[in-house]
C-alpha cells in the first residue's frame, strides 16, 4: 500500500479522540473504513501503532513516535500550501493572530482597521487567549503571530519588543478620590475589594506578584476572563481593578488611582515561530504594528 496523507490524518484523529467511532464521525467516513485504513498503515510500517485493548484507544510507543513526525509533516505541508497561495501584492491572503485580553480592548481594533484599510483582501482571524496558549499555538502552527508580553518564551519562538505597557489601579467615576493628588499607598489596598482577570492570564500574575512583594492581600471579589467584563463591573460597583493606562484613557467613566510604589511596567512583544514561513500578510501586519505604536506614542515604542 502506498502511504498517503489521509493515513496520517486518520491516525492523528484516532489518537486525539481515543475512539474509532468519534474519530470517524469527525473525519466523515465510516468506522469500518477508518479501522481498515489504520490496519493497512500498521501493516505497511510493520508495527502496531494503536493499543486497542483498553476502553480508550491509545498510541503505542511506536505510535507516539510516528504521530510526532506525522504532526510535523502536516504542519510543514500546511505552511507549504500557504506559501504557494501567498500573493506578494497583498490582493489576498490570510493572517491568524492571537492576543492576550488587554490588547483586545485597545490595540486589536486600530490594527484591524489599518490592515483592512490598506489590504482589504487579507482575511484576519483573531483569537483572544492566554500567553501560554499563544506560545503553544504558535509552535503548533495554529497562529501566525501573537501579541503578548516579553519574557522567557518557549524554545523556538522569537519576540520583538513593541512598547512598554503601564498598569494602574482604576475605579469608577462615582468612586473618585475627591481630588486626591497624592498616590495611594499600596498597603491601603488591603482594605479594598478588587475585580481582576482570572489567574490563568499573564496580567493577573503580574498583579499578584506586585501585591505579594508588598505583603498586601486584598479581597478578590470578582474574577473575569475579559477586560470588557472588568470595565463594566467597575463602572457599576464600588470595586476597583487594575488596567493598562491605554484602556483607562479610552473610558471617560473610569478614574485612574496612582499607587505608591507604582506597578512595574512590562514590555509588549510581537511573537512568532523562529522557523516559520513569513507570508506577505504577516510581513505587512508587522509593519502596521510598528507604525501604529509609534503613531500613538506608546511608551518606548521602537
Strand content: 15-25%
- In N-to-C order, the SSE pattern is HHHEEHEHHEHEEEEEHEHEHEEEH
Look at the structure and name the CATH superfamily of the largest domain: Periplasmic binding protein-like II
- Overall shape: it is globular
Looking at the structure, the CATH topology of the largest domain is D-Maltodextrin-Binding Protein, domain 2
Instruction: Report helical residue fraction.
Output: 40-55%
CATH class placement of the largest domain: Alpha Beta
Structural class determined from secondary elements: alpha/beta
In words, what does this structure look like?
This protein has helices spanning 5-17, 20-27, 31-45, 61-85, 101-106, 108-118, 131-139, 202-213, 227-236, 245-249, 280-295; strands spanning 50-51, 58-59, 93-99, 122-128, 145-149, 157-165, 167-172, 184-185, 193-197, 219-224, 241-244, 254-257, 259-260, 266-273. It has 302 residues and is an alpha/beta fold. It has three domains: 5-78, Winged helix-like DNA-binding domain superfamily/Winged helix DNA-binding domain (Arc Repressor Mutant, subunit A); 89-164 and 267-296, D-Maltodextrin-Binding Protein, domain 2 (3-Layer(aba) Sandwich), CATH 3.40.190.10; 167-264, 3-Layer(aba) Sandwich (D-Maltodextrin-Binding Protein, domain 2), CATH 3.40.190.290. The strands form five sheets. A five-stranded mixed β-sheet has the order 4-3-5-14-6, with helices on both faces. A three-stranded antiparallel β-sheet has the order 11-7-12. Strand 1 and strand 2 form a beta hairpin. The chain is globular. The chain starts with a helix and ends in a 7-residue tail after the last helix. The model has no long low-confidence stretch (mean pLDDT 88).
Amino acid at each position: 500500500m502506498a502511504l498517503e496523507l489521509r493515513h496520517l490524518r486518520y491516525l492523528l484523529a484516532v489518537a486525539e479522540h481515543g475512539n474509532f467511532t468519534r474519530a470517524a464521525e469527525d473525519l466523515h467516513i465510516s468506522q469500518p473504513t477508518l479501522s481498515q485504513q489504520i490496519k493497512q498503515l500498521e501493516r505497511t510500517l510493520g508495527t502496531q501503532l494503536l493499543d486497542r485493548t483498553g476502553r480508550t484507544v491509545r498510541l503505542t510507543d511506536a505510535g507516539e513516535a510516528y504521530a510526532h513526525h506525522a504532526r510535523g509533516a502536516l504542519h510543514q505541508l500546511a505552511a507549504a500550501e500557504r506559501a504557494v497561495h501567498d500573493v506578494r501584492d497583498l490582493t489576498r491572503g490570510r493572517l491568524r493572530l492571537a492576543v492576550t485580553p488587554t490588547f483586545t480592548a485597545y490595540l486589536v481594533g486600530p490594527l484591524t482597521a489599518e490592515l483592512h484599510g490598506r489590504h482589504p483582501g487579507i482575511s484576519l482571524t483573531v483569537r483572544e487567549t492566554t500567553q501560554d496558549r499563544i506560545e503553544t499555538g504558535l509552535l503548533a502552527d495554529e497562529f501566525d503571530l501573537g501579541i503578548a508580553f516579553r519574557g522567557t518564551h518557549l524554545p523556538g519562538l522569537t519576540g520583538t519588543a513593541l512598547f512598554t505597557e503601564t498598569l494602574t489601579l482604576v475605579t469608577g467615576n462615582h468612586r473618585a478620590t475627591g481630588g486626591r493628588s497624592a498616590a495611594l499607598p499600596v498597603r491601603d489596598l488591603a482594605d479594598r475589594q478588587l475585580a481582576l482577570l482570572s489567574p490563568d492570564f499573564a496580567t493577573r500574575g503580574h498583579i499578584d506578584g506586585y501585591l505579594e512583594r508588598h505583603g498586601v492581600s486584598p479581597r478578590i471579589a470578582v474574577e473575569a476572563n475579559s477586560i470588557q467584563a472588568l470595565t463594566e463591573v467597575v463602572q457599576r460597583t464600588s470595586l476597583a481593578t487594575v488596567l493598562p493606562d491605554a484602556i483607562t484613557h479610552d473610558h471617560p467613566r473610569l478614574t485612574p488611582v496612582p499607587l505608591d510604589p507604582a506597578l512595574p511596567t512590562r514590555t509588549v512583544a510581537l511573537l512568532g515561530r523562529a522557523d516559520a514561513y513569513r507570508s506577505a500578510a504577516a510581513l505587512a501586519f508587522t509593519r502596521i504594528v510598528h507604525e501604529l505604536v509609534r503613531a500613538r506614542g506608546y511608551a518606548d515604542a521602537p
